[in-house]
C-alpha cells in the first residue's frame, strides 16, 4: 500500500531578499540544502517547498511556497505542512517574533511536527550540561561577561589570556582573544573577528581604554568569557571537529558525518564562513596524533555527542539533528565548544565525503516521514545512544 504524500515546509526568515534567477522565479536562502532536499524527496513521497512567515495568510489559511520545478524555484500555493524544518536565521527581534507567530498560526490551522526544537542561549546550555558528571569535564569554564573589572581580575589567572564571544553568535563573528599583560606597562593585545567576520588586531595601554572599546564593540549584545585554549594543529592552524548527529527512520540518533574545520595560521577561528576549510576528521586527527589514538579520539567524540544529544532533549525538548563542535589540545584533551541546532552541510561538500552529504539529506527526510507515522515520542536513552555511537567510523562510512 503506497504511503500518502506528506508536506515538508522549509521555513526561511524571509524570501524577500532572495535572489531572482529569472522573472517569476526565486533562489531561496541556503539554495544547495533546499535543492538537495527537494531532489531526494520524491522517492520518499514527500512534497518539499520553502516558505517564510510573510508567505502565510492566517485569515484565509493560504500558504505560498516555492517548489523546485523544472530546475527552478516557482512560487505557488502549497498545502499546509505536515512537518516544518525551521531554517530561519532572524536578524532582528521583530523577525524572530514573526517567525514564531507564523509557526503558531500554522499550528492553529493544522497540526504539524517540527524537525527540531530550539536550543536556548549558550550560557543556558552550558549551565545545563555542567550538571552532568559525564559531560562536565569536557566543558570550558564559561561565565557571562559583565565589565572590564571582571576581566582585569581574571586575566592574571589565565596564562594564555581570555576569550570573549557573543552569547548568541555564530560563524566566529565577534570572537575576541585578549592576552594577559606581564607587567603594568605591557600593552593589552586584542585579536579577533569583527561583526562582519574580518580579522583584526589592536593594542591598548590600559584596562580603562580597553573597557571603553569593548563597550562600543559589544553594544547591547551579551558576551561570554572563557579561558583561551590552545586548539591548534601540529602546523599551528586553529581547528575543531564538527560532528553531525541526526535521527534516522526509526527515530534513533546516528552519526551522519564528521569533518575537521581548519582556519588560516594567523586566524583564531576555524569557521568556514571566516575563511576556513574542511578536511576529513580522521585524517586531520591522525596528522596530530598516532592513528590508533586518533581513532580512539574520534570514537570518544561520537560517544560524547550522543550522550549530550540525549541530555539536551531531556531538558529542552525533542530534536531531529544537532551538530557538535569539539576542540583538541596537543595533549589530546577534548573540549565540547558548541552545540548547533541549525547545522549546515558545507563541511561535507568540501571534504568530498559524499556518503555523509547524502546521509545528511536522506536521514532528515526519513525522520520527517517517521514523525508523521510514529506512535510515540522519538526519544533515546543516554546509554543506548552512547553504545551505538561509540564505534570508530571511517570518513566514508559515518
Description:
This protein is an alpha+beta fold and about 400 residues long. It is built from 10 helices and 18 strands. The strands form 4 sheets. Strands 8-13-9-10-11-12 form a 6-stranded antiparallel beta sheet, with helices on one face. Strands 16-15-14-17-18 form a 5-stranded antiparallel beta sheet, sandwiched between helices. The two termini are about 30 Å apart.
> What count of helical segments does DSSP give?
10
Strand proportion: 25-35%
The largest sheet is: 6 strands, antiparallel
Listing every helix as H and every strand as E from the N terminus to the C terminus, the arrangement reads EHEEEEEHEHEHEEEEHEEEEHHEEHHH
Average pLDDT rating: 87
CATH topology group of the largest domain: D-amino Acid Aminotransferase, Chain A, domain 1
Class from helix and strand fractions? alpha+beta
Envelope shape:
globular
The CATH H-level superfamily of the largest domain is ATP-grasp fold, B domain
Q: Which regions have little confidence, pLDDT < 50, spanning 5+ residues? A: 390-398
- Give the oligomeric state: single chain
Task: Work out the number of β strands.
Answer: 18
What is the CATH class of the largest domain?
Alpha Beta
Round the Cα radius of gyration to an integer and report it.
22 Å
- In whole angstroms, the N-to-C terminal distance is 32 Å
The total tally of domains equals 3
Order of strands, main sheet, comes to 8-13-9-10-11-12
Q: Approximately how much helix is present in the residues?
A: 25-40%
CATH architecture of the largest domain: 2-Layer Sandwich
